[in-house]
């Protein structure tokens, strides 16, 4: 069986279907618009990670915010940093020995000498989280 351009014949479905990476828009098999992709096995386009849907278009989340392709952006949370560059998008947990007391921290901070922390820490050992961006020494 011969299929049109952008289609292939599926032996399991016994018909011509869109090539991988393309979706059927009601008239033909086409690529997703900018900043969108097709999830594995999906039949429609969704926003790439780091982008959110706004007025029918995928917009990049502002710095220090992240989206898994939904309709809103959110901060990564305490103990995480946001990676929002052309090559990498997402939230990264701060490794042991570092902390991040801000909801939208750009990088993990090193614990002071002699102090430690577990991965994803808001503050280092001996400190407590006072509020966004602030760790204070524990009372003795």
Automatic annotation (TrEMBL):
InterPro entries named among the record's database cross-references: Growth_fac_rcpt_cys_sf, Tyr-kin_ephrin_A/B_rcpt-like
Name assigned to this protein: Tyrosine-protein kinase ephrin type A/B receptor-like domain-containing protein
Pfam family, one: Ephrin_rec_like
Organism in which the protein naturally occurs: Guillardia theta (strain CCMP2712) (Cryptophyte)
Residues of the Tyrosine-protein kinase ephrin type A/B receptor-like domain: 87-115
UniProt superkingdom: Eukaryota
Cross-referenced SUPFAM superfamilies: Growth factor receptor domain (SSF57184)
Lineage: Eukaryota, Cryptophyceae, Pyrenomonadales, Geminigeraceae, Guillardia
């Amino acid at each position: 069986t011969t299929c049109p351009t952008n289609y292939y014949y599926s032996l399991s479905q016994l018909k011509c279907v869109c090539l991988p990476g393309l979706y059927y828009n009601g008239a033909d098999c086409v690529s997703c618009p900018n900043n969108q992709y097709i999830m594995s096995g999906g039949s429609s386009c969704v926003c790439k990670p780091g982008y959110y849907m706004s007025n029918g278009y995928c917009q990049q989340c502002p710095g220090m915010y992240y989206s898994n392709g939904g309709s809103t952006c959110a901060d990564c949370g305490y103990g995480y940093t946001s990676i929002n560059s052309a090559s990498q998008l997402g939230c990264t947990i701060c490794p042991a020995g570092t902390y991040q007391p801000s909801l939208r921290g750009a990088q993990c901070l090193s614990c002071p000498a002699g102090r430690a922390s577990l991965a994803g820490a808001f503050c280092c050992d001996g400190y407590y989280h006072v509020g966004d961006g602030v760790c204070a020494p524990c009372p003795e």
